[in-house]
Known about the structure:
This protein is mainly beta. 3% of the residues lie in helices and 34% in strands. The protein has helices at residues 210-213, 231-235, and strands spanning 2-4, 10-13, 49-51, 69-75, 104-105, 116-117, 121-127, 132-139, 144-151, 162-171, 177-185, 190-193, 219-227, 240-249, 263-269. A five-stranded mixed sheet has the order 5-7-14-9-12, with no helix packed on it.
Amino acid sequence: xxxxxxxxxxxxxxxxxxxxxxxxxxxxxxxxxxxxxxxxxxxxxxxxxxxxxxxxxxxxxxxxxxxxxxxxxxxxxxxxxxxxxxxxxxxxxxxxxxxxxxxxxxxxxxxxxxxxxxxxxxxxxxxxxxxxxxxxxxxxxxxxxxxxxxxxxxxxxxxxxxxxxxxxxxxxxxxxxxxxxxxxxxxxxxxxxxxxxxxxxxxxxxxxxxxxxxxxxxxxxxxxxxxxxxxxxxxxxxxxxxxxxxxxxxxxxxxxxxxxxxxxxxxxxx
Length: 270
C-alpha cells in the first residue's frame, strides 16, 4: 500500500503479510502524510492517491477469489502550538512480569469496528484454527501497554510443530501496525509477549523506528489474534484456549492541545 501525491511521488509505503504460518486472515497496512518541517515531500494541500496491490510473492496464486477490502481515511488535527521535534530518548523498556489472576471470559469481535473492549486484566477466549478475533484496549497519553498471549495445551494426542501458530498483532487507533508476536505450538501450552513499547506520546512520530513511531496516538489500540489453519492438521479443530494478559501501566497524562478532533471515513470494496 502506498500514499502518493498528484505527481506520483510516494509519501509513505507499507506492506502486510500473513506471516510464517501462511494462514489467510485479516491484515492491515497504513499510509501517512505527515506535516513536518524536516521534509519537503507531500506538504502541499491537494488531492492524494492511495494504491493497494495484492501480491503473491511465490507465484502460486493463494486464492483466485476477490478479497474484501476496507479503506479507512483519518485526518489528525494539527497541534495548537509547536511541540517536540524529536522522540523521547529515555523510557522504561523493561518487560514486566505478565499480569496474574483468574482469567475472565471475553469473546473477540470479527473486525476493527466490532472489536471487543478489554481493560487491564487476564482474559480468556476459545479460538479455532483459521479464526481471527479483534479486541480493543484504551491507552491514554503517557501509558504503556504490555500484552502476553498464551495458547493452552491440546488433548488431541497430535504431534509435530506449527511455527507462528498463534499470531498476535497490535494496531494503533489509525489501524497502523505497531508490533506482533508469533507463538509456535507443539501441543503443549506456549506463550509469547509483544516487545516492549514506549509510552504513548505525540512526539513518538519523530522516532527512527516504525514501532516507536506508531505509538503516537492516544485512544483504542487493537489486539488481533489469529490461530493458523495448519494447527488443525496436527492437533484437530479445537477449540483451543487462548489467554491474553493485558497490562496498562503509568498514569494518564495531558496530551497536546489541538485545533480539532480525529475525523474518520470508511469505504468498502473488493
